[in-house]
Amino acid sequence: MAPAPGVNAAGWQYHPAVRTNLVLLTAALTLPLVARAPRVDTPPVRVSVAVNRPGATIPSTLLGVFFEDINFAADGGIYPERVKNRSFEFPDPLMGWRRATLTDAAGRFSVETATPASPANPHYLRVTSTAGKFGVSNEGFRGIGIRNGERYAVRLLARRGANGPASVRVEFENTQGRALGGVTLEGLTTTWQKLSGTITAEATELHALARVVTGGPGTVDLDMVSVFPADTWAHRENGLRADLVQLLKDLHPGFLRFPGGCIVEGRFLEGRYQWKKTIGDPSDRTLIVNRWNDEFSGRAAPDYYQTFGLGFYEYFQLSEDIGASPLPILNCGMACQFNSGELAPLDKIDPYIQDALDLIEFANGATTTPWGAKRAALGHPAPFNMTMIGVGNEQWGPQYLERYAKFAKVLGAQHPEIRLVASADPFTERENFKTQWDGLRKIGAGFVDEHFYRPPQWFYDNVGRYDSYPRTGPKIFVGEYAAHLPQRQGMRPSTLTAALAEAAWLTGLERNADLVGMSSFAPLFAHVDAWQWTPNLIWFDNLTSFGTPSYYVQQVFGQNRGTTILPVTIDGDAKNGIGGVFASASLDQSAREVVVKLVNPGSDARDVALALDGATAVGARAVTLTGTADAENSLESPTAVSPSNAVASVTSGKYSLPPRSVVVLRVRIS
Ligand code: AHR
Question: How far apart are CA 376 and CA 353, in angstroms?
Fold first, then answer.
């Protein structure tokens, strides 16, 4: 059923301003894999894999990652800047800052604009000490996470007044004002200078503050006050939070879709994502309000802005770091249709198309081209090998087709090597969904992006959705999906129950990997103290992170993708889900392994008799994800539902699927 108007596919009301256990088993195939679960007397489910009838190649992009700056995913999340409003450019330029609680100091502070270091960053802070080492404290993003003994890079712009002190000191402090390590930056002059140093934290704190104090009486001007962990991913100066990047890399993602989501569109066109404003010196990247700041009244985050410290160059780098193909999504000349739906007139659409052309040059162009030269100047002369661009997100109606057609015409003529990703109507049950698909087939698209935020049962009922789709024309991108359980204490929980439904759905996608080229769970990240949307794949606080059971489903499928589809039947039937068991199979050519994915959502164990037609098994190992229906992971128990190793005995191709389990069998063949 289509959601009600004004409510998105996830059932969320948009802003009214219309303006387990994962068990690794290794064994010889001739012994049965015995689960420690109650046995039942139902006959074994016969799962037959036609190794002798290989199908299409499974694209490396079948499973990927969808990144959007929602739930503090970027600022306060994977972009590990510790200082909120470091540039004093929030509309309330002192948001996040307050007078430091130092007893033996007196003074005042104000935001000034008269002589900034950069016109792109016009506001700066003036701190005047009238006694002692007066200063200001920053509260970070729901606090500042520091670890005892770890190093933090401090960088800021500063100058002193005529009689001002020659130094400033940056310190971590706890909420009682006790210093937890600091560094003194010397050599201030009366002109703006970049100063830097390193703090070694002297305690572990989840909710520390960072204070900046003058070296003594007099005036100091400050801007771009930045504190970064030294151990960012790849130790880059403007790098990303290492634990979160590692979690992404462990998914073995085939692609990274960025920067969203609705964030691409903006509530109004003015607030759309403009990639050209997100590259270059971070202090020159003009921030804007994050559209999730007050989208949902119950989860307002008035301090949520996009500084673009994580910008398009960093997204491309991240894609490369995690081995994923970059998939940028661009605004198509339409603001979010759940909000204003503002349109760029068709005769004024060229700058939007030019953004796409320039992005191709930025990502792939020779270093002698204007945009290729910018990429090289940022430190990446080699191309990023971008092969896809998305045009719009969750758009619908004739206005979308008109705008998409213009993009397709220009990009198709100038860059036939780039595959365009077009948006399906997110209301998949209404008539326009079909009309829009028909239109996109006529115009042509590399992929059409369908989104599903539905209850678990929907995913079971729809595992065969793509069995009957036409095999010609655009490929499918399931760009956003998640099984939504009823809310509990205001949140949709991420339990094994939801993850099992997603696993069953993935067997359906894998069976149809000749048509389904890409898929991604959504959203990706959420800060435990600053989220707007549930469920999410990965949660974090200021120091640690964990993957949900859904994360481990993505990981198991991503790490065991296989290279070629193998036809599979359950009890002699090609339909998925027969007898409540869901299955797909593939061949991993280089490993010479048949990879069989089995999902048993039921609360009883199920015996499976596996037959491989046209192949002889010489050994097997299995990965099993199981647990209680309500099993969840958390900061306290991050791996309650997570991979573990076990050895099982196997005889005569018989396996027992534990209750509520995902089992991946990797069978070595001769
Ligand atoms: O994933 C969260 C939001 O859901 C995305 O921004 C949007 O595309 C969809 O409505």
Answer: 23
- SS3 string, 234-297, reads HHCCCCCCHHHHHHHHCCCCCEEEECCCHHHHCCCHHHCCCHHHHCCCHHHCCCEECCCCCCCH
Q: Cα separations (Å) of 149 from 180, 357, 401?
A: 10, 47, 56
The structure's pTM equals 0.94
Q: Which residue has the tokens 């199920």?
A: 606
Q: Which of ligand 1's atoms lies nearest the C-alpha of 522?
A: 1
**Tally: H helices and E strands in the chain:** 10, 35
Share of the chain above pLDDT 70, in %: 92
| Residue 271 neighbours by CB distance under 10 Å | 20
Residue 259: cis peptide before it, omega within 30 degrees of 0: yes
89 annotated active-site: no
Helix (H) or strand (E) run with residue 319 in it: helix 312-321
CA distance 579 to 570: 8
Around 22, how many Cα atoms within 13 Å sit in the side-chain half-sphere? 23
For atom 10 of ligand 1, the residue with the nearest CA is 8
Could you read off the pLDDT of 20-33 as tens digits, one per residue? 333 333 333 333 33
Contacts (Cβ under 8 Å, ≥6 apart) of 170? 154, 156, 182, 183, 185, 197, 199, 210, 211, 212, 225, 227
Q: Distance between CA 606 and CA 622 in Å, rounded?
A: 16
- The neighbour count for residue 8, using CB atoms within 10 Å, is 18
DSSP string, 364-375: HS-TTSHHHHHH
Q: Which of 361, 394, 510, 593 is catalytic?
A: 394
pLDDT digits (tens, 9 = 90+) for 629-652: 999 999 999 999 976 655 444 445
What residues flank ligand 1, with Cβ below 6 Å?
Answer: 8-10, 68, 70, 260-262, 393-394, 480, 522-523, 533
